[in-house]
Amino acid sequence: MPGDAPCNCCARVGALGRVVDGVDALRRAVREELQMGADQIKIMASGGVASPTDPIGALGYSEDEIRAVVAEAGAPTCRRPGKRPNLPIAVLEKRRRVASDTVEPSTSEGGVMNQGINVVGLYVDDQDAALSFYVDKLGFRVHTDVRNGAYRWLTVQHPDQPSFQLGLFAPGPPVHDEATAQTLRAMVAKGAMPPLVLSVADCRASYEQLKARGVEFTQEPVDRFGSVDAGFRDPAGNGWKMIQAATGK
Questions:
Q1: Rounded to 5 degrees, what are φ and ψ at 28?
Q2: Nearest to 146, CA basis, from 164, 162, 161, 168
Q3: Strand 165-169's sheet: what is its strand order?
Q4: 57: exposed, middle or buried (C-beta count within 10 Å: 0-12, 13-18, 19+)?
Q5: Which residues pair with 167 in a beta bridge?
Q6: Res. 21 pLDDT band, cuts 50 70 90
Q7: 120 vs 3: which has the higher pLDDT
Q8: How far apart are CA 188 and CA 121, in angstroms?
Q9: Contact status, residue 215 vs residue 207, Cβ threshold 8 Å
Q10: Residue 167, H or E segment
Q11: Quick one: DSSP state of residue 53?
């Protein structure tokens, strides 16, 4: 499906890309993105694994299509274990080449290249209110804030944890129908979603500081087995535990 209209799976990653089909169309799309200043070309080649509609065994892009993208972007290749060896790296960088000795595929049987969790998302009913809470009250900073029509990909990060992003996502189209979105908003408001944990050096001092900023606490600091924890919630209803680890842990 050539064109610029994002599909639902694109919306899950911010709708920053385009749906392209065929070697020639892919080559043209890569050239256009690089001409517009792209620093990376990311191929969503997960196929049925990441698609809400395709069969689980669908491969997404063919090997010829992936090689065409690599040829246009200019990037090294590495051998990847599994059924489709010698495929190019999925994320390609323009201008800055990666030295061959820095690309080390997994040596385990059937393994994949894994760099860890990058984004974990929360559902919020009001993204502007959530942004104000996490930035102005908790001290997070904005990482990404982009829109595609009504869809908004919004992430923040803790200043001491720059490799991790917390997504603040609003239930609704194109990911959810309205009935599902209403159910999710209601669950969040009731505090039914799994709690999150914020690690702090001094729970009582952080409690006083955040309370002065207007954070709604559901539990004052309590000593438990050498650690100290308190509870608070964000404007949507997501619950947090703020924990000071036991000494020496």
A1: -65, -40
A2: 168
A3: 119-123, 165-169, 151-157, 141-148
A4: exposed
A5: 121, 155
A6: confident
A7: 120
A8: 13
A9: no
A10: strand 165-169
A11: S
What's the alpha-carbon Rg for the chain, to the nearest Å? 22
Q: ∠ CA(105), CA(86), CA(107), 5° rounding?
A: 25
Using left for φ > 0, alpha for ψ between -120 and 50, and beta otherwise, residue 29 falls in alpha
Q: Do residues 41 and 30 touch, judged by C-beta distance below 8 A?
A: yes
- 213: exposed, middle or buried (Cβ count in 10 Å: 0-12, 13-18, 19+): exposed
Question: What tokens appear for 248 in the block?
Answer: 């020496």
Nearest alpha-carbon partner for 198 in 225, 238, 247, 151: 238
pLDDT digits (tens, 9 = 90+) for 132-149: 999 999 999 999 999 988
- How far apart CA 54 and CA 106 sit, in angstroms, is 27
**Token code pair at residue 35:** 């001409």
Per-residue pLDDT band for 55 (boundaries 50, 70, 90) equals low
The CA distance from 27 to 21, in Å, is 10
DSSP for 90-149, written as a single string: SEEESSSPPPGGG-----STT--------EEEEE-S-HHHHHHIIIIIT--EEEEEEEET
